[in-house]
Structures are given as C-alpha cells and as structure tokens.
C-alpha cells in the first residue's frame, strides 16, 4: 500500500444540508469525518437568495448564509472540510476506495454520499441571467412560490412534477401559464386532469420558451412560440419556473450501487443504507420526491447515525 493513501473512518462526499448535517452528527460521535465539498460547495441552496422555510430563522435567511452557518457548525465539532470532488470509487471490496480529483486515493471505513441532484434548465442565456440575479427564475415552486403570491407566473414542463408545481402555484398566484413543449403531457392522467380543471391555470400545448424577459434585474415576462402556427408572443409574468426534471449526481457510483431508472441511489427503506455495506446516502442523490433542505438534513442525520452503528457493530 502506498504511503500516499489516506485512511479515513468516515468520508462524506458532497456538501449541502445533507452532507453538513451528516458531518455534524459524525463529528459529535467521534468519527473524525472528512468532507469534500464537491463542485458546488454548499449545494443548490447557494443559488437561492431567500430561504423562508428553514426552521429557526423566522425572518428568513439567504441560501449562502445558511450553508456557511451549517458548515461552520460542522467544523466547530471537528469536521475536516476540504475542497475537491470525488472522481472515481471502488466499492467492490471490504475497503471502500475513493479518488479525489483523479489523484488522491482514500481508503474509508464508511462513506456517506450527499452529492445531490442538479436541476435541469432550458439553457437560454436570459434564463441563466435571471437565475443568477435571483430575479425570478426558479426550479422549485415549493421553495419559491411564496414570493409570487397574487402575481402571474409561467411554468415549463409536462410531467407529474410540473403538474404538481403548477397546481401548487395556482393556490398562491393570480394566474399560472403552463408551457408544454410537446402536443401531450407526460404526466399521469390524474395529474393532467387536475391542472386542466384548475381555473387559474392556462395550458399552452406545443409551445416553446424563446426568451425570459426582464429589466436586467427582475423578470417581467416570457416570450413564447406557438410551434404549430409559429406565432411569437409575450406573456406578462414576474416569475419563471422550470420543471423539466433533475439529474442526480451519481454517475461515478453506477458500477457499484443500485440506482433507479433515472439515476437516483436506491436506499433500503427506512434507512440511509445502500446495497453496499458501509456506504450510506443522504439528500437529493436518493430523494426525487421531496427535495427540500429540511428533508435532506434529516437524511444526512440518518446517514451519520447508520454509519456510527455500522462501525460500532464491527468493533
């Protein structure tokens, strides 16, 4: 064994609410956790301006502030937080091997995966601009819908999640325009019927988003195209929601862990355990249903507790 190989009791791959919460619990249990932050330190919440549904912050908090606070809490108890990301793993043997940045090899007694999932966007320059300014583009209606109460919004998508988010927004917003890029929904019939029966949801089938309109800081509308007639027109809106899916950041684990058909890690029900003993998962890498900061933190806690019990059983 090379002298350059580092041996670690508990390695946490990825940050965000799941990773940092796992780190807090693992550190308090004297597991000496090492956490690699990944390509997006702090996770998806670092792109969110206002978080108003995190318990204990009655006035709200920004996503970056929240993640800095949780990171500092993890470090306070002794977590070794490092820059870098996992590029390769080998879970075929009793020793779990992980490579960081294609160079550093680590041998781990336990591994907690909290690599999250990345929201899919249309890729429009204007969409990315207003996403970065925090001026009205979002991929999470449950997270951000409250800010558009009594306003008009546009949502893009055709699946169950898009229908759920459109229906959720309809309870808050004056008007919801749903742009479906094809001639039919991908959602289940019950979800399709639900949005069709909701009075303040206008459904435009076979329509594309051409541009997100705004004043440079905030969204003021959406330019859409009727693919049947080629008509291009503007839709007034203060919010633009994208609900075309998420991609779990799990590619490097596919040869060793059981994934579902869309790439999410399959955990043993009621636990954070994967199909490999000593490897655990928390947060959006396994959760394609709730995808909230608080649920991610909860499963991060579970992962640390499960890892602690796994190590105790080996002693």
Please supply descriptive tags for the structure shown above.
alpha/beta, single chain, 7 helices, 315 residues
What's the short version?
The chain has helices at residues 16-28, 63-76, 125-133, 141-144, 160-170, 189-196, 293-314, and strands at residues 6-13, 34-36, 80-82, 86-90, 96-100, 104-113, 117-119, 137-138, 152-156, 175-180, 201-205, 207-214, 219-226, 232-236, 239-242, 246-248, 279-281. The protein has 315 residues and is an alpha/beta fold.
Note down, in words, how this protein is organized.
The chain is built from seven helices and 17 strands. By secondary structure, it is an alpha/beta fold. The strands form four sheets. Strands 1, 2, 3, 4, 5, 6 and 17 form a seven-stranded mixed β-sheet that branches. Strands 8-15-9-10-11 form a five-stranded parallel β-sheet. Strands 12-13-14 form a three-stranded antiparallel β-sheet. A hairpin with a 5-residue loop joins strand 13 and strand 14. It is elongated, with a radius of gyration of 21 Å.
């Amino acid at each position: 064994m090379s002298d350059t190989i580092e041996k670690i009791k508990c390695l946490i791959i990825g940050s965000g609410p799941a990773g940092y919460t796992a780190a807090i619990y693992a550190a308090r249990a004297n597991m000496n956790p090492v956490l690699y932050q990944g390509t997006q330190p702090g996770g998806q919440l670092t792109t969110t301006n206002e978080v108003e549904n995190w318990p204990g912050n009655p006035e709200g908090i920004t996503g970056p502030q929240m993640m800095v606070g949780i990171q500092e809490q993890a470090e306070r108890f002794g977590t070794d937080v490092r820059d870098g990301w996992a590029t390769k793993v080998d879970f075929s043997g009793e020793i779990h091997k992980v490579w960081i940045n294609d160079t550093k090899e680590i041998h781990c007694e336990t591994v907690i995966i909290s690599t999250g999932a990345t929201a899919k966007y249309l890729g429009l320059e204007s969409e990315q601009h207003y996403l970065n300014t925090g001026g009205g583009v979002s991929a999470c209606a449950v997270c951000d819908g409250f800010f558009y109460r009594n306003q008009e919004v546009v949502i893009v998508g055709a699946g169950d999640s898009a229908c759920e988010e459109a229906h959720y927004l309809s309870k808050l917003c004056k008007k919801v325009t749903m742009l479906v890029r094809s001639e039919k929904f991908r959602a289940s019939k019950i979800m399709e019927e639900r949005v069709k029966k909701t009075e303040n949801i206008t459904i435009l089938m076979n329509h594309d988003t051409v541009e997100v309109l705004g004043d440079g800081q905030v969204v003021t509308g959406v330019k859409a195209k009727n693919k049947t007639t080629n008509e291009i027109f503007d839709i007034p809106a203060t919010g633009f929601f994208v609900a075309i899916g998420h991609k779990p950041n799990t590619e490097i684990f596919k040869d060793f862990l059981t994934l579902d058909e869309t790439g999410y890690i399959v955990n043993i029900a009621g636990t954070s355990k994967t199909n490999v003993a000593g490897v655990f998962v928390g947060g959006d890498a396994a959760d394609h249903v709730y995808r909230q900061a608080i649920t991610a933190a909860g499963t991060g806690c579970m992962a640390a507790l499960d890892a602690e019990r796994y190590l105790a059983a080996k002693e």
